[in-house]
Amino acid sequence: MAFKIYTKTGDKGETGLFGGRRLPKFHDRIEAYGTVDELNAFIGLLSDYVESEDLNQELKNIQDLLFVIGANLASEPKKENAVPDVTDEDVMALETAMDRMDADLPELKHFILPGGHPAVSHAHVARTICRRAERLVVALAQQEVVADIIIRYLNRLSDYLFVVSRKVGHDLGVEERKWEPRKK
Fold first, then answer.
1. Predicted local distance difference test score (pLDDT) of residue 72
2. Dihedral pair phi/psi, residue 23, rounded to 5°
């Protein structure tokens, strides 16, 4: 018999964690890993607009790690699971990538508005989804056990996505859209 994607176990508004516990679909844990999943999907969309093979490989690696983060968040917090971990090296890889991209970019002297090219805009939307995921994970960590590395990774990832927006725009020759305060 073929595997079916639908289980019908969520028809009453609950879903199960790895480890067995069932939670309402609006629970903070479900919101957190659901937003990480949304971020993963949006990074996939971003990669569809990126022409650099190297950057696309980085984005694929990030998607793999976001899947790991989602699995960690979808697991019973007190139960031993065979879910891979996110490491300090993963955070450092984002920092190294940002430093590499920053070396090619003009000095940042102003706030930047999203836009100018679909790839730039998609990077900014991914960044804002990442920030929301981070906020939700931080809120969850106030109630239940969440590995600190997950919060650090999401924090660094939003910075990375900002730099990606600038790098992609720079490579495409798109002028950054500077925010300028209203004149009185």
1. 84
2. -130, 155
Query: What is the per-residue DSSP string for 84-136?
Result: PPP-HHHHHHHHHHHHHHHTTSPP--S-EES-SSHHHHHHHHHHHHHHHHHHH
Rounded-to-integer distance, Cα 144 and Cα 137, Å: 10
Q: What is the mean pLDDT of each run of 10 residues along the chain (184 residues)?
A: 60 55 61 91 96 95 95 73 78 97 93 94 97 96 90 97 97 93 86
For the chain, the structural domain boundaries read 25-75+86-101+113-172
Q: From CA 143, how far away is CA 32, in angstroms rounded?
A: 12
Residue closest to 132 by CA, chosen among 69, 43, 28, 39: 39
Quick one: CATH architecture of 25-75+86-101+113-172? Up-down Bundle (1.20)
Sequence-separated (6 or more) residues with CB below 8 Å from residue 160: 62, 94, 97, 98
Q: Which residues pair with 16 in a beta bridge?
A: 22
